[in-house]
Amino acid sequence: MPRTLNVTVAKVGGSLLKPGDVEKVLSKVIERHMVDDGKLILVVSAMKGVTDLLIKAYDEGKPHLIKDAIQPYLNEAYRFGLSKLGSLIEGVGERLETLINVREPWVRDNVVVHGELLSVMLIESILYNELGVDAGAVYDPGITTNEDWGKASVLGVSSHYVKHRLTWALSRRSIVVVPGFLGISLNGRLTSLGRGGSDYTASLIAAYINAPRLIFYTDVEGIMTGDPRIIGDAKVIPSLTHEEAYVASLTGAKKFHPGTFKPLIDSNVNVMVTNPWSSSGTSIISRCVNTPKLVSVSDVGSIGLINLKSGYAVTVVGCVMGLDEYRREVYLIMSSYDPVDVVNDTEGNAVSSIVKDQDEAVKLAKDLHKWVVSWIR
């Protein structure tokens, strides 16, 4: 699709959408994009903690948890005097309370994606009524899926629908707000793309419309060299390639949906992972900077890079991991931890060591991280 519009796709993560902070976050995001007189597609997640509540409400058959899930949206709506919106949200809650009694796989998906749908309702209203922005909502941007409930796969026809619907919406509004995390099956059922699916939605949209820019707004300044919860001196990675970011997501880095960066491989979309208040972040680009980039630790059952039943994968990601001189140094560090196996990514972007014990995995990750950051300036 030719670039006929100056369009930025921006995804706002649920970690930023906390009660009392929504307007502040939106104001900052809009401020950053008003300078270039372009169009903005805003992909939004559920407010912090809402998806977990919706999942628990359905899985445990507890209607009162639906009230807890919608309460943050009601609080924000009534805080801004948006009484009509508040009534709509209450109506959605009543419908969901009834719906969770239907024990069908499609119903679970329908329930859990409502956090994103409510975010679209709230954010469109705040943008239009409080911030005076020419914003409009598109609740179905055209992501079409199969009916593999809980982890639906995106169908190729999505490209056509997304281009058509969002190009039309952008011709009428400066800012278009769409939900992440969800699709619609060919039978018209709401489906879930899986946890972290809002990131995946944003990448799909950016790739389909050939957007010049895609920005992931999160609560940290970028993708880190290691998980800050276990590696105290982790730092922001200046840049990754699309391929490196894809492998990093497969190995659990920053909890991105594993498919997030796959649509961007071989694209010209310039990607940034940053915080709304930060002037820096991680750029995701086509050209490789020849250093290792990050270390991740994952339960082997939760990632797609390797196919083992138990243990922990400690992975070094970087486009240089296909080169003997780098692999030898990594192998030397890994060998001292008596790994069950060492696995090389076939594309040369990662090396993983499989260890049995979680404490050993953390120690290995810290040792490998020291080596990784020694290369990053």
TrEMBL record:
<dbReference type="InterPro" id="IPR036393">
    <property type="entry name" value="AceGlu_kinase-like_sf"/>
</dbReference>
<dbReference type="GO" id="GO:0009090">
    <property type="term" value="P:homoserine biosynthetic process"/>
</dbReference>
<dbReference type="GO" id="GO:0009089">
    <property type="term" value="P:lysine biosynthetic process via diaminopimelate"/>
</dbReference>
<keyword id="KW-0418">Kinase</keyword>
<dbReference type="GO" id="GO:0005829">
    <property type="term" value="C:cytosol"/>
</dbReference>
<feature type="domain" description="Aspartate/glutamate/uridylate kinase">
    <location>
        <begin position="7"/>
        <end position="275"/>
    </location>
</feature>
<comment type="similarity">
    <text>Belongs to the aspartokinase family.</text>
</comment>
<dbReference type="InterPro" id="IPR001048">
    <property type="entry name" value="Asp/Glu/Uridylate_kinase"/>
</dbReference>
<dbReference type="Pfam" id="PF00696">
    <property type="entry name" value="AA_kinase"/>
</dbReference>
<protein>
    <submittedName>
        <fullName>Aspartate kinase</fullName>
        <ecNumber>2.7.2.4</ecNumber>
    </submittedName>
</protein>
<dbReference type="GO" id="GO:0004072">
    <property type="term" value="F:aspartate kinase activity"/>
</dbReference>
<keyword id="KW-0808">Transferase</keyword>
